[in-house]
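Example record

One chain of 67 residues, shown exactly as stored in the release files.
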Amino acid sequence: MLWLQILISLILIGLILLQAKGTGLGTAFGGQSQAYHSKRGVERTVFLATIIFGCLFALVSLLSLRL
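Predicted structure tokens for this chain:
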């Protein structure tokens, strides 16, 4: 169970790092400001995979506490 939790956490870290482009304080230092931006293609897939792996990580963590 521990190895599964470690594997999911590494995948989740990678997915979060893939999304880090142009967000946060980037607009304060000359980045592009977009009032509305819809996610398409690979960006949407990575976003949805991040949500799924985040929920999976939480579920595995709760199960490991119970066992």
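Notes: The helical segments are 2-18, 41-66.
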